[in-house]
Amino acid sequence: MIEWDIKKLRILRTLRERGTVTATAEALLMTPSAVSQQLSNLAKQLGVPLLEAHGRRVRLTDAAHLVLRHAEAVFVQLEQAGAELAGYVKGEAGEVRVGAFSTAVPALVVPAVQLLRTTHPAVEVRVREAEAAEAYELLASGAVDLALSLAAHAPTARDPRLARVPLFADPLDVALPAGHPFAGAPGLRLADLSGEAWIFGGSGPWSEITRRACEAAGFVPEQAHSAAGWTAILAMVEAGMGVALVPRMAAERRTGVVMRVLSADRPQRHVVAAVRRGAEAGPAVARVLAALREVAAARTGS
What H or E segment, with its residue span, contains residue 249? Predict the structure, then answer.
């Protein structure tokens, strides 16, 4: 009978995700030689080759992928067991580490924490700000227990590691300088702004969201300026340097900026929460998810 080693299986899974022994070692705080030795020992235990040479790198064999397909179900069961055990030991108490992108922290996480202080004060939330895509990496690696991110950057729904919980759709409004000709024009459409100078990030999720929204409206935006933070973007809009798409949950009040709701071509981004599959059964994680849903519902008026 085969003796399964969970630690070694986690190393194999991390290699599949990271792609190289070096990256796997960095993610698990191990040395590359230790990673290689552990995987070699696992192959001997299972009696099948798990890695094969591929140029200067290695790749997983078909046998390794077969093993991992079954191992994912084991990992889910272990998450559920850990969650239920934590509930048994701590009852309603517990710590939940949350990784969230910058605008979600004040708009969703902080109100949820305030709500929990009233309804479930024994649940402690620790917050870590992270880029949208990074939040999923932190969750998969075990660095956080719950990730708040964007659906556009989430793993697919078929990913066996993670369970996703949709929260709400965040509309994108257009930020215009106060004296702009379209600042008070009725029936504003995104396509009306095709000839404008645009302000958005040079790379990353927000660059993609802006470009996709404009392309869906029938034009490619001309990027006049690049900025990653909303404060910088809105300051440039206020100075008349261009226009920008801004998530409603990230908008700041500025006297020199007019926020316009689009009458058509309304783009939006979908905000989701994610946990490692099986962990949602834990009482503390479940309480945090419920609080986030309540705050999200209040934002959308539902």
Answer: none
Q: How far is CA 66 from the centre of its chain?
A: 28
> How far, in Å, CA of 110 to CA of 15, rounded?
35
Condensed to tens digits (0 to 9), the pLDDT of residues 26-52 reads: 888 899 899 989 998 888 888 888 888
pTM: 0.68
- Cα separation, 25 vs 10, in Å, equals 12
Residue 125 and residue 228: Cα distance in Å, rounded?
Answer: 27
Residue pair 230/254 in contact (Cβ under 8 Å)? The answer is: no
Spatial contact of 87 and 282, defined as CB atoms under 8 Å apart: yes
> What is the Cα–Cα distance from 26 to 39, expressed in whole angstroms?
15
Q: Is 53 left (phi over 0), alpha (psi -120 to 50) or beta?
A: beta
Residue whose token pair is 């109100």: 111
- The H helix count followed by the E strand count for the chain is 10, 11
Whole-number CA gyration radius for the chain: 23
Residue type, 173: D
- Structure token digits, residue 199: 């302000």
Helix (H/G/I), strand (E/B), else coil: 120 = coil
What is the identity of the amino acid at 296?
Answer: A
Could you read off the pLDDT of 76-89 as tens digits, one per residue? 888 877 776 766 56
The β-bridge partners of 171 are: 268
Please name the amino acid found at residue 140: A
The sign of the torsion formed by the CA atoms of 49, 55, 57, 60 equals negative
Q: How many CA atoms lie within 13 A of 268 on its CB side?
A: 12
